[in-house]
Write a structure and sequence with these properties.
1 helix; 63 residues; single chain; Ribosomal Protein L24e, Chain: T; structural constituent of ribosome; zinc; Ribosomal_eL24_CS; ribosomal protein; alpha+beta; ribonucleoprotein; 19% strand; globular
């Protein structure tokens, strides 16, 4: 049985055989479901709790 991975940005499950792994210089490993999640986290430095399309979204807003 393949290992289930969770996207580091959206917290959605990644299907086996898909997704991307990103390793920072300090050894931190990030898994991304697609390029949209990767770009939003690494390039645009967005907070996933502010984006409605992520599972980390908070309805009441961030305080």
């Amino acid at each position: 049985m393949p290992e289930q991975r969770i996207c580091s940005f959206t917290h959605e499950e990644i299907e086996p055989g898909t997704g991307m792994m990103y390793i920072k210089r300090d050894g931190t490993v990030y898994w991304f479901k697609d390029s949209k999640a990767r770009k939003n986290m690494l390039k645009l430095k967005r907070n996933p709790r502010r984006l409605k399309w992520t599972r980390r979204y908070e309805k009441g807003g961030i305080k």
